[in-house]
Each structure stands twice: as C-alpha cells, then as structure tokens.
Amino acid sequence: MTNNTDIKIPEMIPELERGPVWLKEKRKTSRDDYNNLPIPRRGLHLWRYTDPLKFIINRDTAQETAFGESFDVIKQEELTNLTAKHISALITDKAGREIEFFTSDLLPEKVVIKKLSEAVETHSEIVNEYLYKLISSGTGKFEAQNSALWNDGVFVYIPDGITVEKPIHLLHEAGLANSVQFARTLVVVGKNAQVTIVDEYGGGAEKGSKEQSYTNAAVEIYGQQDSRTKYVMLQRQTDASHLYLTHRGEIEQNATVLTIPLSFGGQLSKQNFGVALNGQGADSKMYGLLFGSGRQHYDNHTLHHHKVGKTTSDIDFKVVLKDKSDSAYTGLIRIENNAKTCEAYQENRNLMLNKGCNAETIPELEILNEDVMCSHGATIGPIDPEMVFFLKSRGINEASAVKMIVSGFVNSTIKMVPEDIKERITEYVLTRLETI
User: Fold this and answer.
1) What does the alpha-carbon distance between residue 120 and residue 126 come to, in Å, rounded to a whole number?
2) In sequence order, what are the beta bridge partners of 232?
3) Count of alpha carbons within 13 Å of 406, Cβ hemisphere only?
4) What is the domain partition of the chain in residue ranges?
C-alpha cells in the first residue's frame, strides 16, 4: 500500500452514496475537508513523535480484504462467553463489510444494537443528533477520512432507566496485508442507564509482510444525565498493522464514564481518547495500560475537557516497554473559565524493562480559572533495583522477581477489566514477560 502526499478522495465512490440525504451530505463535506486539509506537520504538538505520512493511504490500491485465522478463534471464545452469560451480546465486524450480531437473554429487550447503516433509517432522530457531533472533519484530517469513508458501523442505544448487567462486546477484525478498514461506532446511553462496552481491535497484516494493513477507527459515546458507562478498548492487532483511533465521549449532569484503553498490538498505533464533562456532577476516569515489545511504536493522547463547574476527572496511564519499543504520551486537562470548583488529576508512569526502549511523556494543563484542584505527574525509569534485591533476598530468582514487580504494576488496571477478556489480557502480559 503506497503512501502518497497527493492522494485525494475522488468524487464518485460507493461510500459517499450510502445513507439518506443528510448522511450523504455529511460524507461529501467530510471528503472535501479531507482533500483540502493539509497533512499535519511533523514535529508540531501531537505529531512530534509520529510521522503522519504513515497514515496517508491510497484506498484505490488496497486489495480485496482477506482475514487471518485468529478471528475465528477469538469469535468462538466470545460465543462461549455469550453462552456462559459472561457477556450480553457479541458483535463481530469484519472491516465494515460483514457485521453479525449475537445476543443472549441477558440483553434487555428495549436495548438497540444494529448496523449503523440500518440505524440511520430506523432511529434517524437519534443518529442524526449524535453522529459526527464529536468526531468529524472538524476534529482533524484523519477523522475527516473516516467520516467520509466508513462503509458500515455499529450503533448501540441504551434507553432511559435500562441497566445492561453484562458487557456488550464488539470484535473488529482488520484484513491482511494491503487492506483498509474504517470502523465507526456510535453509543448513546440514556438517562439513568448503565452499560459496559468492550471494543476490541484485532487482525491485520501478518509478521514479515512487506505491506501493512490500515485501520482508521472513530468511537463516539454519549452519556446522558445520571448514566453510567464503562468503555474498554483492547488493541491487539498484528505486528505489521497501522492503527489510528479517535475516541470521544460527552457526559451530562451526574453521569459517569470509565475509559480503559489497553494496547498490546500493532506496529504503529496512534490513539486519542477524550471526554467532555458537560454537566455538574459529571465524573470521568481513564485507566490505561500499554505493553510494548519488539519495535512497536505507540503514540497516545488523552483529553479531559471540563466545560462546567463541579466536575471531576482522573487519569492513570501506565506504560511498560521492552526491547526496542517506544511510547509517547501527551495528556491534556482543560478547565474552562466558568468551570469553578473542578477537580482533575493526571498521572503517567513508564516502566522500562531494558536499555534500548524509549518513553516520552508530556502532561499539559489549560486551567482558565483559579478555583480548582488540579495536579499531574509523570515518571520514567527502570524497575527499582532495591525491590528486586528485596525479593531475591527471599529466595526468588531475578527473572521471577521482575515478573512479580511488573505484574503488580499492571494489576490494578487489569482488575477493572471485564471477566470475558481478563484471562486473555493477563496472558498477553505474561507472554511478554517470558523472555525477560
């Protein structure tokens, strides 16, 4: 798949003609904006550590999408979890071309889960109000690309007062080498409603491929008054895949959202997670975990935007690196001038398991009034040798001591992960610790 700085989205392609008139207009506006927006300048703000040219893709040279064998394995595992009632529903999405829905009797009847292409017709009032509200061409060039080119997506609507006890699991599968997918997800959680969403991204070009696979994903989540939302993102794509993901949430008065980004896969991964606190009493927490190995490159950005007063937020983003992997983290807390008596905290901790890996961390604060409680912190360093010495003095060998320390470092985040993927997450961590 060839990168080309002059690639434009043509006027006549099938994606631009999908949906009702209002959606076609938004798609075409997004196409125009993508074509007119400049490529982000390398070295400026959020692009100082990642080359944006690696995400400029010629869709016309992409091959017919084929998929790896791992998809069927994970799908069967989650179907087993569905039967065992560990999850309420499973949605499988093969590059927006083939979307299937599997549900259990745990899913309340009033909950709506369907293809986004169907929801624009059957639930047009909701979709028209929320789709593109948080992620559109106004968000950036690559968001404009997704807004124009998504083939189909997933729509989840939890009506007022409904509680979904077990997670709804979305399984997105990228194609093999030289493939492109534009994943789009819209979640609307009604007043006093509750849901857990597991959003999993797998597949991609296999190790050793000369061409990469490419994923551009957009996730919009809206939590209405007194709602409770838990969003878990698991990225486990293959070693030759590139992923660009933008997540944006907006929560109203007394609503809560817990965002848990988990990143283990991909060759190149740039992810943006943000929540706007739009009503008094709103509370957002982000607890992320990233484990890099080989020559993986991760670039993550988080945002908490306090639009009104008496809102709270907390970020704890943990990074573990080994081999030649590297991570860049930028976290922004923005508190508006009229947003009095807000509380906001941000922490990024980076654990380096050997020489040769690299971490960058940039905490950012935009505090526009003085009546707030706000703090941030960041650490980068190896495992404390005194901790290793303490464990060795108790008869534990050095390799086992390191594994115990790393496991303790990540355990608080893993404990918050839903049961249906907790075992896999733990296995991903342990597998990467085997060669230490």
Assistant:
1) 8
2) 198, 260
3) 30
4) 14-278, 384-436
